């Protein structure tokens, strides 16, 4: 009887010791989560300034200056307060646009980084007369 009791205690201690291995796996998973969450703590981009200039009677030029890594830029052209055209993201921080109709133009610049964090800024408005 004593012998079976001792065997039972030995088996229970082995089972309990085996459970300890599972917690080390959890720690490993938490460690990997910590690494991935620190990677996602990349600072969002910051726009220092945007400008809109009339280059000639039919062309406007938008320039954006932003701080960050792996930045991409998208431009929304507004005419008289309505979206006229959406230019998809690209790595170039400037845009030349040919104006087809007279009106008041403004551009909204979107800047995103590799973590898909996005910031926006609007240019001042410019009146185009096309004369």
Automatic annotation (TrEMBL):
Disordered as annotated region, ranges: 22-48
Pfam families cross-referenced by the UniProt entry: Y_Y_Y
PROSITE patterns membership: PROKAR_LIPOPROTEIN
Domain Two component regulator three Y: 67-115
Signal peptide: 1-17
Domain of life of the source: Bacteria
UniProt biased composition (Basic and acidic residues): 22-45
Keywords assigned: Signal
Name by which UniProt lists this protein: Group-specific protein
Organism: Peribacillus simplex
